[in-house]
Amino acid sequence: MRVLAIGECMVELAPTGVDAQFSMGFAGDTMNTAWYLARISDFEVSYFTAIGTDAVSDRMADFLSGAGIGTQSIRRLPDRTVGLYMIELKDGERSFAYWRGQAAAKLLARDEAALARALAQADVVYFSGITLAIL
User: Whose CA is closest to 12, among 33, 27, 30, 2?
Assistant: First the structure.
């Protein structure tokens, strides 16, 4: 079974609990689902998105590939980067601040031919309301 997840993977800054320090990771609703599917199933999981050509975009692509998620359908846009969000904790409640101004994922469906090729290779396609909202 070939699963294609479509969406936005973002840089996540999460508090470490030590002063004002944060740890950096990668997350997002569709990416999280792709990550779990790649870990717990025999499915061939790939991800369709757009990222930049900068160092953090490279790290993200390496993270996805290292997790067993196919990156062949990820578009690289030289004038863009990836989105960022930061988690704040207050009295046990989480809140989020987002930075998406130059996020390449906002343009992930602009290349209709690339999207059509990725869809044609999938048995199952997974996307979310957030995927639709960023477009």
Answer: 27
